[in-house]
Amino acid sequence: MQDDILKWNGFQRSSQLIENRETIFELAHPIITRLPSERAPNVPAGVHSVRIINIRVPEVIQYGTRDAVTLDCDYVTKNVTGLVVKWFYNDRSQPVYQWIPPQRPQALGLLKDKLDLTYKVSQNPYMQHRALRILQPGTELTGNYTCVVSTFLAEDEKTRPMTIFVPETRFDMIQDRLQDGYLNIICSVEGVFPKPELVILVGNRPLNAKSSIKNFEGRYTALTSAVVSVDSLPPTVEILCDMQVPLANYFSRKRDIFYRDPPLTSPESNNYLQTSPDAGYSMESMPSLVFVSIVMFYILQSR
């Protein structure tokens, strides 16, 4: 019984000693947020790990609309010994940013000349340079960004994507009525980033199409073409060309109306079909249009 009392008293004194040490630590570092009870792998009980509680990275930014963009990595820890904050772009081979308090942050690699190293997201000396402040963000910075926060005892990381989006400079749809009873539908887009996807639909039914896409100086040019029998179409049918950029959650559409049996027109205008006013244009088969289509495909295939 006496041994049990001594053990209990010893346990109480040990618990008080641990609590006193934690109190002393908090007084010495009042700016460090205290975490809920948790233990890092292979770390003795009572020592808390570092934890990233929020990473803020803009998902999509339209190119040219911002002079700067901030990527923030908010974390908590009770142990600042050996604290290092790193940011990685796409892979973990080399950090693009590194901060070891109380030293000045460093910009490396792709972001070497793109960062505002004086930017402070907090007045906390162990938090103030945790964020990236990227100046004049361009499309080359589209990718995945990983924040890694580590101490001598633990490490945590989180990753988020960011897309710098450029809308198209041109988007066209052409109906080329061939002499052999077929309709060639051509859809093209220029100057967009990231990579677009084109789909041609007739009466809300997607068609099998031949497509080509090339990257010219960081901007995509894409062309898709589908041929359908005129006799298989209803007298009047809606033709759509849908463009989407999945990484940017962007969608655009061209809409046109095709008349299988176009109304009689005057000789001066018998080469043209009626079109809806909001998209594309339609024509009967003309040598110049066919030539342009062939040239466009040749250029895309040869680059």
TrEMBL record:
This is Ig-like domain-containing protein. It comes from the Eukaryota. Gene3D superfamilies: Immunoglobulins. PANTHER family: BEAT PROTEIN (PTHR21261), GH04238P-RELATED (PTHR21261:SF2). Residues 30-163 form the Ig-like domain. SUPFAM superfamilies: Immunoglobulin.
